[in-house]
Design a protein that fits this description.
CATH topology of the largest domain: TIM Barrel
Number of strands: 8
Bound molecules: flavin mononucleotide
Oligomer: single chain
Shape: globular
CATH class of the largest domain: Alpha Beta
Low-confidence stretches: none
Number of helices: 13
CATH architecture of the largest domain: Alpha-Beta Barrel
Length: 327
């Protein structure tokens, strides 16, 4: 009599990562929409910036329409892939949204388990899931199965209040079948504090065999390689430092005119796309100016830029700085 074998949990298929370099632009809500993202992608070669992500796309209890997913992905295509990032807790709604995202052209789907916003926590999504590795695994697995022929990746923080579940979370993302794990090395409780503990990234690297992308505290171009060297991660992702210096991936030092041109282009694209009016575009430019380091454009004058109340005056000042190079 043939012995009765226990059911075998098949390991979900993993896919090669489509990134063109190990340095990635982090998903950032309110920032990495197509206008900003495309400008960054256009200014860094594919062997410098390896890929980017949409801002998180919130899935509640219904799959999102394809139209919404197309809007997040944008129209422009670059050599570098732009992954769509989904956040939610409803397994089947997430899986069907992931399937639709791939259907409309997403080269990969990233799942966010790190958002500390109150809205996400209320919906038991984002970093709320950092207390439940089993739920993380279920979500990843359902999306991997729904997507099949494209990579699914997962992005976690080091933990909720502390980092004790870090290895369990990393293994949950791997067990679900993800092709890459991104570890933002701060816990939810640490929010965006200045100090970072990269040894947590090294712990995740030791816990799993899939590629790990380190994240948190990359401030300069040299930090990418330093993070890789110190933690063993294969890839590294930068968030806020890229808001201040979109050339951080190449390490190129731009003049202030080129830096001003970036900000003007950003404002023009926001207005032309209908994504913001003049006032809204000025506010978005100021959001970048808060972080801005490129081209010494705001060195010693940041406050005066941020205090510019009249959008037109702000844009005129940028235009004057941008034309400096031609004098
Ligand atoms: C304005 C802003 C928006 C963010 N939105 C997202 C998001 O949509 N999805 C996500 O996974 N992380 C988001 N993050 C976190 C970043 O992706 C990144 O993990 C974090 O900023 C740490 O990297 P850094 O130290 O290089 O900034 C956001 C961060 C900032 C500053």
């Amino acid at each position: 009599m043939p012995s009765k074998l226990p059911p075998v949990a098949l390991a979900p298929a993993r896919h090669a990562l489509p990134f063109t370099s190990p340095w990635l632009l982090a998903p950032m809500e309110g920032v990495t929409e197509p206008c900003f993202r495309d400008l960054v992608l256009a200014r860094n070669r594919a062997d410098e910036l390896g890929g980017a992500f949409t801002e998180f796309v919130r899935v509640v209890d219904e799959p999102l329409p394809r139209r919404v997913l197309r809007e997040h992905l944008g129209d422009a295509r670059f050599a570098q892939p732009v992954g769509i990032q989904l956040m939610g807790a409803h397994v089947s709604a997430l899986a069907e949204t992931a399937r639709r995202a791939v259907e409309v052209g997403a080269p990969l789907v990233d799942l966010s388990f790190g958002c500390p916003a109150k809205g996400a926590l209320r919906g038991c999504a984002g970093s709320a899931l950092l207390r439940e590795p089993a739920a993380v695994e279920r979500i990843v697995r359902a999306c991997v199965e729904a997507v099949r022929d494209r990579p699914v990746t997962g992005k976690i923080r080091a933990g909720y209040d502390d980092d004790t579940l870090l290895e369990d979370l990393a293994r949950a993302v791997e067990a679900g079948g993800a092709s890459m794990l991104t570890v933002h090395c701060r816990t939810r409780a640490e929010a965006y504090c200045d100090s970072v503990d990269w040894s947590r990234i090294a712990r995740a690297v030791a816990a799993v065999s899939i590629p790990v992308c380190g994240n948190g505290g990359v401030g300069t171009h040299a930090d990418f390689e330093r993070m890789r060297r110190e933690t063993g991660c294969q890839l590294a992702m930068v968030g806020r430092a890229a808001l201040g210096d979109p050339w951080i991936f190449s390490g190129k030092r731009v003049e202030s005119a080129e830096a001003a041109r970036f900000l003007l282009d950003y404002a023009e694209r926001l207005i032309a796309s209908g994504g913001a009016g003049t006032k809204g575009a000025a506010a978005r430019v100021k959001q970048l100016l808060n972080y801005w380091t490129a081209g010494a454009l705001v060195a010693g004058t940041r406050e005066s830029w941020l205090c510019e109340a009249d959008p037109r005056a702000l844009f005129d000042r940028l235009a004057a700085a941008a034309s400096d190079a031609n004098r």
